[in-house]
Amino acid sequence: MSRKIVKSRYFGDEGLIETVSEVPAEKHKAWGPDAELKVVGKPVSRLDGYEKVTGKAVFTFDVDLPRMTYARILRSAVPHAKIKNIDTSEAEDLPGVLKVLTYKNCPKIPWHWNTTVLFDERVRYQGDEVACVAAESEAVAEEALRLIRVDYEVLPFVTDPAEAMKSSSAKVHDWGNIIDEGPAVYFRGDVEKGFGESDLTFEDTYSTQVVVHNPTEPHCSVASWEGDKLTVWDSTQALFGVRDAIAKSLSMPSSKVRVIKKYMGGGFGGKLEAGKYSVIAALISKEIGRPVRITMDRKEMNLSVGNRPDSVQRLKAGAKKDGTLLALSQYSYGNVGAYPNGADCGTPLRSLYKCPNVRTEEYSVLTNLGRSRAYRAPGHVQGTFAFESLIDDLAYKLGMDPLELRKKNFTEVDPISGRPYTSKRILEAYEQGSKAIGWLEKRKPTGSEQGRFRRGIGMASQIWWGGGGPPAYCTIKLNQDGSAHVLAGTQDLGTGTYTFLAQIASEVLEIPIDKIEVTIGDTETCPYCGLSGGSLTAPSVSPAARDAAEQMKSKLLSAGAALLETPESNLKYSSGRISRLDEPDKALSISEVIGKLHEKVLVTTGAREANPEGYEINSFGAQFAEVEVDTETGRVRVLKIVAAHDIGRVLNYKTLLNQFHGGIIQGASYALLEERVVDEYTGKVLTTNIHDYKLPTVKDTPEIELIIVSDSDPLISNTGVKGIGEPAIIPTAGAIANAVYNALGVRIKSLPITPDKVLMALSEKI
Amino acid sequence: MKNFNYIQPKALKEASDILKKKPGEAVLYAGGTDVLGLMKSGILTPEEVVNLKSVPDLKYIRHTQGKGLQIGALTEISEITESTLISEKYAILKQAAREVASPQLRNMATLGGNLCQRPRCWYFREDFNCLRKGGDMCYAFEGQNKYHCVTGGGPCFIVHPSDMAVALLALDARLTIYGGKKFKTVPLKDFFVLPEDDYRRENILKPGEIVTEILIPELPEGTKSGFVKFKERGVWDFAVVSVGAVIRKDGDKVSHGKLSFGGVAPIPWMEEELNKKLQDLALNEESFTQLAQGILKKAEVLSKNAYKIPLLRNITKRILLELTA
Question: Which of A77, A691, A696 shows the shortest C-beta gap to B127?
Fold first, then answer.
C-alpha cells in the first residue's frame, strides 16, 4: 500500500500539534452516515471486562518479578527550602535497605524543562523529591524514610497566585513567578470599540479551585534490567514518551528501553508525562541489579503528581439589545504550582460563539505548591464554567432565554481561524438536549422558586478539539487458522481501546470478535501511536486499524483472485470466505488462502490518514442540568444531567456511555465537592486523602441521559470518529452552576458550590 | 508504619494490665478503622497493639424490659443498624448507625471504638505539630477552619467526630468502664473532655481503662427519636453538623425532649437551657423555629464556619417537626 508524507496540524491535549507524518496515499471511502456496520458502533462488551471484574487483570502494581525490591520516595516536608545536608547513614544501616538515592549521589538529570533536576538541593513545594530508598520490602523502605535526617534552610514561600504575581513576592525560581514573564495575549477586532457600541455590558469575576486527578490506580512503575536492556512497566498514558524520557535521562538508546502498560486504572492527564519515579526506579534497579517497584501512596497522589490549576477570571461581555455579541474580554490567572506549566483557560471564550471583538490576557503563575498537569480538558473545564456563567448572566440582564442567546451567536466558522468546521451539530444538541430536560415546560423564571427546596434548570455549551491525526499505526497479523492479532502502540486508560480495535478488525475482515487478540501498550512489539490524551486515541488509531484491516482484506482478495483464477472484480468477500460471483461454489476460506500462500501469518500495517486541508475539527455539545437546592442546608442535589453531543461516529456505545458517565460524574464533583485545600500559613496541603479530598460516591451521582446527535464525520477520517474523553466533562460544571442560579436567583461565582457558600449567599440576599 | 507487638489477651484484666504497664506505648485495637489509619500516618506509634476482640463476651445487644438496652463495646455498628432488639423508640440509634462512614467501615467499626475515636481535624491528621499532638498552637484557629467547632473551643478547636455519641447523649446513655479491678458506670455526658480541661485527650479514660458496655435507659411508651446528619458528600463523610432528638408529646405540647448536637463542639454537645425550653413547647413550626433560634446562643464562630449556626438551627427545626408530626 503506497504512502506519502504530509504535514499535519491538529490540537492535542495541550495545544497545537504540527507534524510531518507518513499517511496512506489514498483514503478508504469513509464510513459515512449511511454506512451499514455490523460490529462497529454496537454495544460490544469490553474484551478486558472479564479479567477486570474477576481481579485477574494484571496492572502495573501487580507485576511481580523474582528478586523484586521496593522503593519509596522521601518528599519535602516544607514548601520551600534549601537542603543544607542530608544524613542517610541511619537509613542505610537499617537491615533490608539496598540503596538510598539523594542529590548527593544521583546524577543531575534535568527535569521540568531544565528548571530543576531529579533530586534538587532546593525543594520548591511540600512533596518535592528529596530522597528515595529501595529495600527488601515496602515496610522497610518506609521505615528507612523516617531515619533520613534532612537539614532544611527554610526559604520564604508563596501559595497564593495573586500574591505571587507581585514583585515583592517570594520567588519560586530565581527568574520569577510568571511563566514567560508575562501574560499570553490574544485579540481580534477592537474590544474597547465593541464594548462602546454595545447596548449592554456585563462584567464579573469567577473563580475555580485546584482539583486533583486522583485516579483509582496510583502512579506506579516497575523497572527491570537484563544485561544492558531495560524493561519498565509503567502506569502511563504515553508509552513512547516514558520510553524516550527514561532513555534520555539514562543516556542510553531508546531501542534498549521497553515500556509496557497493559491495563490502567485511570489517568485523566496526570499520567501523560514521564514521572521522576520511573527514572528513579530505573537508576536504582541498574545499580542494585534487581527489579524495583515504586508506587505512590494516596498522599503522594494528592501532593506530587499533578492537578488542575485554579483560576480567577475577570470576564466582560458586550451585546446589542437583541443579544448579538459585540465584544468579549478576559483577564485571568491560575496557579501552576512549583514548576512550569500552563493555566490558560480562554479558548471557550475565544471560540464558542461568533463575536468580532475579543481580547484575552492570561497569566500562568508559579507558587510553592505541587505542579499542575494536564487534567481532562485542560483549561476548558474552568474556562467553560466561567464563560458560560457570564453568558447566562448576560442573558438574564438582557431578559433573554439563555439558550436563545447562545443560538443567536452560533458561528458557522471557527472565529479564530475563520475556517469552516468538518462538522458542527451543536444546534441539534441544543434542540434535543433542551427537549429531554424539559427546558420550555419545566424551567421557571430565574429566582421565582419559593420554599425550602428550589429547583432550577441550566445549560452550558461545549467545544473541544479531539479530531486526532497522524502519526498512528496499527498492525494486523492474520493466522492460518483464521484468527487475527491486532497490535498498536497505544494505550487503554480503562476507556475501551482494546475493544474498539477488535471491533474494527472484526468489521472489515468479518472475523468473530472472539478470534481477535489485541496487543497494545508495548513499545517493543507494537507500531508507534501517540499518547492517549486530548481525546486523541480513538480518532487517531481507529482509522489506522481500519487501514490495516482493509489492506489485509485486499491482500486476501488478490490471493483469492490468483487461486480461483478470476479477476478480483468477480470475487465476493463474506464472513471470512472468498467466493466467485459467477460460480459461488468456487470458494476459499481465509485459512485455505493463507495455507496456499505458504505463509503462516499475513501481516499488514495501516496508518492514520491526513486530516483534511482548510478545515477545523472540533467536537461540540451541550449539557443541561436540573438541580434541587435545599435552602435550609445549602446542599445542591443534581437531579439529572442531559448530555447532547456531536462526536462523529460512535465506535462502541457501551464504552462511550461509560466515558460520558465518568466525565459527567467528575464534572459534577468539580462543581460541588472536590477542592484541594492549602494552609496558607505553612504552605502545606490539608487534603491528602480521599476523605478530606472529597471524591464523589455513588450517592453523589446524578441521573444521566446521553444523546448523540451525530452519526459520522466522514471528512475527518475513514472511521469518522471524534474523541469524547474530554467533551464529557467540559460543560457539566457550567450547566450545574447555571441551574443553581436559575433555582435561587443568586449567582455562586466560585467553585465548588458547597453548602456554606450557598447558605452565606442566601443570607446576604435576604 | 513502625513495627509493633500484636497482643491477643484472653481476658479484660490482661488487656488492662498491658495498657496500664505501658501508658502511651500500648494501644487498644477493636475494629481498627481509626487506629490503623492513625498508625499508618504516624500519629500513633505504639509498641504494643492490644486486640480487644480476643477477649470474649464483649459483643452483644440485649434488651431487658424496664432496664433498657445493653450493648457490648465490641458490637459492630452494622449490627446496630440491623438488630431487631432495637425498637422504633430507639430509632435515633439505628439512624445514627446508618449514617456512620460506609457499609464496609460499619462492618468493621465497633460502638466502643466509635466513641473513643480520635478527631478528624486535618491539622491533627496531617504533618502539623499541633497542640493536641504536643505542639504549641492550634493551626485551625486562624487557618482552614470550615469544619471546626463553633462552641466549646479553645485552646484547641476540633469537633468530636462520633455520630453514635450524639445519639447516645440524647438517650442519656451510660458507659461501663473496666479499670483493671472493677467496673464503674459513668454517664456519657461526663465521658468527654473539653480542650480547656485537657487538650491532649478527648475522654476521661485513664491508662488501663476500657469501655466495655453502653447502657441505654428504657424509654417510656410514646417516645420518638431521630438523628439527622448533614454531610457534604452523599455517603462516607463525617458530620458537618448533626442533631439527635428524643421527644415525647402530650397533646399539642412537648412533655419531654432532649436535643444533642454533633459537629459543633470538641465534644458531643447538649444545651441544658435549650432542653428545658422544650418542656411544654407548643407543637408548631413557629415555636420550633423560635426554639431553634436559641440554639448555640453563645457560639463563637471562626473565620470560615459561621454557616454551621443557621445550618444546625434549620436541621433541628426540621427534625422536631418530623418527630412530632
Answer: A77
Rounded distance, CA B239 to CA B164, Å?
Answer: 11
Q: Whats the size of chain A, residue-wise?
A: 766
CB A348 within 8 A of CB A388: yes
Percent of chain B clearing pLDDT 70 (strictly above): 100
Closest Cβ opposite residue A694 in set B3, B232, B311: B232
Pairing of β A3-12 and β A229-234? unpaired
Q: Do A756 and B235 touch (CB under 8 A)?
A: no
Cβ-contact B249, B283 below 8 angstroms: yes
In what order do the strands lie in the sheet containing A311-319? A184-188, A357-366, A325-337, A311-319, A200-208
Neighbours of B53 (CB within 10 A): 15
Residue A19: half-sphere exposure toward Cβ, Cα within 13 Å: 20
Q: Any residues with CB less than 8 A from the CB of A255 and at least 6 apart, and which?
A: none
Select from A686, A698, A759 the Cβ nearest to the Cβ of B310: A759
Buried b (16+ CB within 10 A) or exposed e, A494-527: bbbbbbbbbbbbbbbbbbebebbbbbbbbbeebb
Mean of the per-residue pLDDT values of chain A = 96
Contacts of B241 in chain A (CB under 8 A): none
Nearest residue in A to B102, CA atom: A697
Q: Is B88 helix (H, G, I), strand (E, B) or coil?
A: helix
How many residue pairs bridge chain A and chain B with CB atoms within 8 Å of each other? 84
Alpha-carbon distance of A92 to A99, in angstroms, equals 7
Predicted confidence (pLDDT) at residue A37 exceeds the cutoff of 70:
yes
Q: Strand, coil or helix: what is A392?
A: helix
How far apart CA A678 and CA A687 sit, in angstroms, is 8
Residue A251 contacts by C-beta under 8 Å, 6 or more apart in sequence?
A: none
Cα separations in angstroms, B93 against A151, B163, B169, B217: 51, 9, 11, 13
- With an 8 Å Cβ cutoff, is A677 touching chain B? yes
Which of A691, A692, A759 minimises the CB distance to B307? Answer: A759
**CA of A698, closest CA in chain B: separation in Å?**
8
CA A424, CA A616: separation in Å to the nearest integer? 10
pTM: 0.97
Closest of A655, A709, A727, A735 to residue A437, by C-alpha: A735
| Chain B nearest C-alpha distance from A576 (Å) | 50
Closest partner residue to A633 (CB to CB) among B1, B127, B311 is B311
**Calpha distance B132→A43 (Å, rounded):** 56
- ∠ CA A718-A20-A504 to the nearest 5 degrees? 25
| Residue A598 pLDDT grade (very low, low, confident, very high; cuts 50, 70, 90) | confident
A692 Cβ under 8 Å from any chain B Cβ: yes
Q: Any CB–CB contact under 8 A between A579 and chain B?
A: no
Q: How far is B235 from chain A (nearest CA, A)?
A: 6
A142 with B307: Cβ contact below 8 A: no
Pairing of strands A220-226, A292-295: antiparallel
Q: Is A686 on the interface with B (CB under 8 A)?
A: yes
Q: Are A62 and A56 in contact (CB under 8 A)?
A: no
Residues 6+ positions from A215 with CB-CB distance below 8 Å: A265, A266, A267, A268, A270, A271, A301
The owner of cell 466495655 is B212
Q: What is the pLDDT of residues B192-240, one digit of tens each?
A: 999 999 999 999 999 999 999 999 999 999 999 999 999 999 999 999 9
The answer to whether residues A376 and A270 touch, using CB atoms and an 8 Å cutoff, is no
Residues of chain B contacting residue A698, judged by C-beta atoms under 8 Å apart: 234-235
Q: Name the one residue in this structure whose C-alpha cell is 491526513.
A: A610
How many angstroms separate the CA atoms of A399 and A414, rounded?
A: 28
> CB contact, 8 Å: A764 with chain B?
no
